[in-house]
Amino acid sequence: MEHLPLFISIKHKPCLVVGGGVVAARKTRLLLARGGRVTVVAPELDAGLQARQAEFCWLEQGFAEHHLDGQFLVVAATDNAEVNARVYQLANRRGILVNKADDSKRSAVIFPSIVERFPLQIAFSTGGGAPWLARLLRARLDALLPRHWGALARVAGRLRRQVQQAFASPAERRRFWARVQDDPALTALLQQQDESGAEAWLRREMDQPSRGEVILVGAGPGDPDLLTIKALNELQKAEVVLFDQLVSEEILALIRPEAELIAVGKKAGHHSVPQEQINRLLVEQALAGKRVVRLKGGDPFMFGRGAEELQSLKAAGIRYQVVPGITAAAGATAYAGIPLTHRDHAQSAVFITGHCKQDGAEPDWASLARGRQTLVIYMGLMRSAHIRQQLMQHGLDGATPVALIERGTTVRQKLVRGELRELAELAERVASPALMVIGEVAALADSLAWFRPHAAEAPPAVERCG
């Protein structure tokens, strides 16, 4: 890209806009908002410019070279390509910053898309190649960026010296801001526009001893677009991240580069790090004063042993938070076109794990074998033959539709369909992580599956057994 992104002050500086139409009006508004001393050269003015005529100097004439005299920034925004080219050539020859509105590639300056929470500004550009994409990105960022962050930036600016004095190292300062920026008390003060109250609150927090914290974050079923905004925010603030094998590479790439990554790759049949050691690592890292994210696939409270980890943290007196995620039962089935409930087929859904505790306690198979419900089984591949046997033995018809979803919501998603009597054979055709769905709704994948992991697939493939 030829343009270097810069923020340049134009306050009180002379700026010339050549043209009086819609584009010129938009550029003029931007210049006026930044304090530029604007002159508009045009025989006629757009209605929007006419409404703000008192804010700039209007020269009711065509462009001439002498209009460039003393200008800091020039915008060529007429509907005449020859005039725009002449303005560009003359301004460029004089070394004046110039924007050619109809040709960003021939401009020394381009106007980026802007998302603003004064004094916070985010500016971005596609170099003029895809303005629709810039508009889309602007809309997304505008929705994501909290409205009160402008006030937060103002307060932080006023307290910058005090924070530097209170915390000696950049790591300590970063840890302080990561801890307080989303605190509900501070957020409430900023949303109420009580900046003096927010300053007082922050000063009190500076006097508090530094302490670590653990945030239990659900990474969702795999598709990074299914992360919650809060989860993404925590990944960007983390100093240490302990992550499971089920967390996708695409999600790991969203973690701030400076964070320490610790793999605790728990996987069915392959617990590379015992749970007790994971608990100990969380406590040790937090006691060292660090902001720790425990990143777990799906939802941390859905068969993820998240509660056990929180119990260890609570016993050690460590602060913690929980950020829920979309569990596989909701995410993978949605991407496979399988509704968990349906008025004609299932009035309830039951989630169970295929893993039993070491004492071998079995679930209530009689209740699980009832009709008109959806049974979703996590981590059940290794016990598929046993699951089939127990469900059929307790009365569930062997012809009951089943579906197995491997790596749901990701580009590697694979969906295999069949009947309960074939469950063990179906399980041999997929790999972990995979989700079992048993019930009449599983058959709806044949007609409702919509997700295309590979662009060439149309419609999405649903493998059938038999």
Automatic annotation (TrEMBL):
Protein residues bound to NAD(+): V22, V23, P43, E44
Domain of life: Bacteria
Positions of the UniProt region annotated as Precorrin-2 dehydrogenase / sirohydrochlorin ferrochelatase: 1-202
Record keywords: Cobalamin biosynthesis, Lyase, Methyltransferase, Multifunctional enzyme, NAD, Oxidoreductase, Phosphoprotein, Porphyrin biosynthesis, S-adenosyl-L-methionine, Transferase
Enzyme Commission number, as recorded: 2.1.1.107, 1.3.1.76, 4.99.1.4
Gene Ontology terms for molecular function: NAD binding; precorrin-2 dehydrogenase activity; sirohydrochlorin ferrochelatase activity; uroporphyrin-III C-methyltransferase activity
Reaction equation(s) it catalyzes: uroporphyrinogen III + 2 S-adenosyl-L-methionine = precorrin-2 + 2 S-adenosyl-L-homocysteine + H(+); siroheme + 2 H(+) = sirohydrochlorin + Fe(2+); precorrin-2 + NAD(+) = sirohydrochlorin + NADH + 2 H(+)
Keyword Membrane among record annotations: no
CDD domains xref list: SUMT
Domain Siroheme synthase central stretches: 117-143
Gene3D superfamilies the UniProt entry points to: Cobalt-precorrin-4 Transmethylase, Domain 1, Methyltransferase, Cobalt-precorrin-4 Transmethylase, Domain 2, NAD(P)-binding Rossmann-like Domain, Sirohaem synthase, dimerisation domain, Siroheme synthase, domain 2
InterPro entries: 4pyrrol_Mease, 4pyrrol_Methylase_sf, 4pyrrole_Mease_sub1, 4pyrrole_Mease_sub2, CobA/CysG_C, NAD(P)-bd_dom_sf, Siro_Cobalamin_biosynth, Sirohaem_synt_dimer_dom_sf
Pfam families: CysG_dimeriser, NAD_binding_7, Sirohm_synth_M, TP_methylase
The keyword DNA-binding is assigned to this record: no
Residues of the Sirohaem synthase dimerisation domain: 148-205
Similarity section: Belongs to the precorrin methyltransferase family.
The name this protein goes by in its record: Siroheme synthase
Native species: Zobellella denitrificans
Name of encoding gene: cysG
